[in-house]
Amino acid sequence: MQRIANLMLRRFARNARGAVIVEFAFALPVLILLYTGGVYLSDMVSCKRKVTVATRSLVDLVSRTMSPAIIYNDPKSANAKSQLSASAVILAPYKLDKANEQISLIRVCDATHAYVVWTQAQTQNVDGSVVTAATSSHSAGTLPENKTQSVANIVEIPSEMVTSAMIPASPDGSNICGNLAPGTSTKTQVGTAGGWLFMGKISYSYTPFISFLPLANTTLTDTIYMVPRLY
Q1: Where are the domains of the chain?
Q2: Which of 51, 81, 55, 54 is nearest to 199 (CA)?
Q3: Cα torsion through 57, 58, 59, 63, rounded to 10
Q4: Residue in 140, 62, 146, 128 with CA at minimum distance from that of residue 91
Q5: Which of 199, 150, 146, 139 is nearest to 178 (CA)?
Q6: What is d(CA 6, CA 12) in angstroms, rounded to the nearest whole number?
Q7: Which pLDDT value is given to residue 5?
Q8: What is the value of pTM for the model shown?
Q9: Which of 87, 126, 125 is nearest to 103 (CA)?
């Protein structure tokens, strides 16, 4: 009896049938995780590309259709709603209500800073048919009113966007970014001289479409600067 039992045990130990199924059962969760993770990363990269294209389109549209001189003289009447809405549509098929679009006109005051002349931001519903004004991350000044401006109206800009011809000079040699009070014969006030730039920014709250994985929402943002075509 013991001999028969030993033979059966040896035969069972040598039997490899079903081993592949067992190994596949162990590997399947890992394969599913790799596949879904790859799809998630691919979709997020695609969304980020959409954000970049939409941001570039926004700045390009505004720089071609809006005059910085006209905006400067009457910033309260400037309206880029159509350009902001058009750029949002580029984000489709991603939901538009997850996006915030912003455009600003800034005036260079030194190699790495600029004065915010005007800014506008908006969001919209999922299909873009209803637009809602949003709070811009920039604080626009009150020029051309003859008032002292706020340091909050000065923002940092990439130095590679500025050429020497865009940087204004004050008669007294001071840095114009710090000249917040109305100008005099010896001092140039910030925002009254210098090159122009349009700055577009779009932020998108990306939500993973894979619900069973513990993936957090990610904010995808792009900022693009462009020199105006009009003056």
Answers
A1: 2-226
A2: 55
A3: 100
A4: 128
A5: 150
A6: 10
A7: 60
A8: 0.85
A9: 87
